[in-house]
């Protein structure tokens, strides 16, 4: 089974070479299996080194939807809800998928200072509701 990056999947889909896409459960994660005229493969990370894993199926569906892929299948036979590998490699897979998703997100970025100011306001509200003063 050959790997395919998101960019390669988009190009293959745009060229009409994708015949099916399946969101497959695998332990506590989801994978995207792609079937093209030349065979089946799995979506990989940008560097093509690792299979791209999604801990939330909506993240995978959002990625496919952004590409224009709105019809496909799902296979939950190997999905084990609420289970996650605790090995360091699993964290690496998860982190890479989160980074890839963030890089692919078209939402405009927020400046660091704005995010920190928002967090400070929220923390002050939480502490105020609890009748406590926030730490300094």
Order of helices and strands: EHEEEHEHH
Q: Which outline best applies?
A: elongated
Rg from Cα: 19 Å
* Structural class based on helices, strands and sheet pairing: alpha/beta
| Helix percent band | 40-55%
Query: How would you sum up the major sheet?
Result: 5 strands, mixed
Largest sheet, order of strands side by side? 1-4-3-2-5
**Average of per-residue pLDDT values:** 87
How would the blueprint of this fold be written?
Blueprint: E1 2-4, H1 6-14, E2 18-26, E3 29-36, E4 39-43, H2 57-67, E5 73-75, H3 88-104, H4 112-129
Parallel strand pairs: 1-4, 2-5
Antiparallel strand pairs: 2-3, 3-4
What does this structure look like?
By secondary structure, the chain is α/β, with parallel strands linked by helices. Helices cover 40% and strands 21% of the residues. It has four helices and five strands. The protein has helices at residues 6-14, 57-67, 88-104, 112-129; strands at 2-4, 18-26, 29-36, 39-43, 73-75. The protein has a five-stranded mixed sheet with strand order 1-4-3-2-5. Strand 3 and strand 4 form a beta hairpin. The radius of gyration is 19 Å and the shape is elongated. The mean pLDDT is 87.
Protein traits:
136 residues, 4 helices, single chain, 40% helix, alpha/beta, five-stranded mixed beta sheet
Quick structural overview:
This protein is an alpha/beta fold.
């Amino acid at each position: 089974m050959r790997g395919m990056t998101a960019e390669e999947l988009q190009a293959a889909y745009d060229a009409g070479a994708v015949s099916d896409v399946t969101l497959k459960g695998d332990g506590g994660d989801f994978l995207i299996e792609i079937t093209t005229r030349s065979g089946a493969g799995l979506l990989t990370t940008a560097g093509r080194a690792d299979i791209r894993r999604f801990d939330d199926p909506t993240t995978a569906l959002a990625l496919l939807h952004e590409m224009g892929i709105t019809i496909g299948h799902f296979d939950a036979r190997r999905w084990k809800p609420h289970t996650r590998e605790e090995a360091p490699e699993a964290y690496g897979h998860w982190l890479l998928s989160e980074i890839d998703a963030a890089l692919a997100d078209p939402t405009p970025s927020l400046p660091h200072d704005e995010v920190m100011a928002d967090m400070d306001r929220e923390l002050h509200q939480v502490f105020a509701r609890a009748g406590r003063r926030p730490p300094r």
